[in-house]
Amino acid sequence: MLSYRLISNNSGRVSFRSPPSHLSGYLNLARNKHSKRIYSSVVQNISRAPPPPPPPPPPPPPPTPTARPSPLRRAFNLLALSLIFTTAGYVMATETALPTLLSTLNRRPISDADTLSMFAPPDATAAQIEAHIQNHPLAQRLRANPDFTESRPHLKLPAAMLEHNLTGKTLAGPGKIVVPPFAWSEKGGKSLVSIVYVGEDLCGHPGVVHGGLLATLLDEGLARCCFPAMPNKIGMTANLNVNYRKPASAGRCFVLRAKTVKIEGRKAWVEGHLETLVDEGQDPVVVCEATALFVEPRHAKTMVKLYPVA
Questions:
Q1: 149 SS3 class
Q2: SS in 3 state form for 246-269?
Q3: CB-based contacts of 62: which residues, under 8 Å, 6+ apart?
């Protein structure tokens, strides 16, 4: 409330004067009552107001700068990681080869003569084919020649390795390569003669032996011919050229003839062909011919201990 009153006179001037003294007490009392009402209203409004929001969290501390490793330490870490991954890869790569390695190291070496008595025909068909090859005049002549050594090469492989061999296991059995092939190797790796029976389940065209199988037989036969002439008795095919001359009828025996043409360091050149096995007085039919180059790998000294093929 105002403590002064407005007074206007005839001159047009306005002035303020203090209230009479007998009204001052009433004015002060009204002022105090009005203040109490305002205070009470403020207190009620404050009690009904929502609580103030919590203070914001303190800012995170600045990141501590990390010291960058020295070039020497980075090189050491890279070398350590390389060794770890190389070792892991080696372990994974040799996991399947470990049984073969152990069986090879723990077994007695199988000689060529041992292989001749290791196969027993499982059925009458296999027994008939076995007897036909054993008693054929060509086999008897080669067996009587002192310059040739008779063997059944696939039977020299360790059992764990034979399980994964293409011609010794995968393509062997009834209707396929029914009996393990015979081989006669001339001294010094000069030449080789082999007799193999190919069944009717290895055809490309009906009744005709698949050309890929003929190439495989030539590849193995030519390689086996030159291995005894190589420094460590083993090699890998670097080149193989095959010319097909006549269709090869399935369900019969074939003769593989190979000759080592040249040896030069770790390289060997071989030529050969596949022909039909015929009776005495008949002319064989050459079904395919091949020339090949074999190269001995640099780690051949280790391979020859694990992979007896010659």
A1: strand
A2: CCCECCEEEEEEEEEEEEECCEEE
A3: none
In whole angstroms, what is the distance from residue 150 CA to residue 7 CA?
150
In angstroms, what CA-CA distances link 178 with 130, 219, 249? 9, 20, 15
pTM of the model: 0.67
Query: Reduced to 3 DSSP states, what percent helix, strand and coil does the chain have, rounded to the nearest 5?
Result: 40, 25, 35
Strand partners, 16: 6
**Bridge partners, 183 (sequence order):** 151, 194
- Whether residue 94 is predicted with pLDDT greater than 60 in this model: the reply is no
The Cα 50–Cα 43 span in angstroms is 13
| pLDDT over 70 percentage in the chain | 73
CA–CA dist 263, 260 (Å, integer): 8
Contacts of 115 (CB under 8 A, 6+ apart): 151, 152, 153, 155, 156, 180
Q: Would strands 14-17 and 5-8 be described as parallel, antiparallel, or unpaired? A: antiparallel
Name the token pair of 8: 């206007």
How do residues 134-175 score in pLDDT, each as one tens digit? 999 999 999 999 999 999 999 998 888 889 999 999 999 999
* N- to C-terminal Cα separation, the chain: 128
Paired tokens of 114: 């041992």
Which residues face 263 on adjacent strands? 268
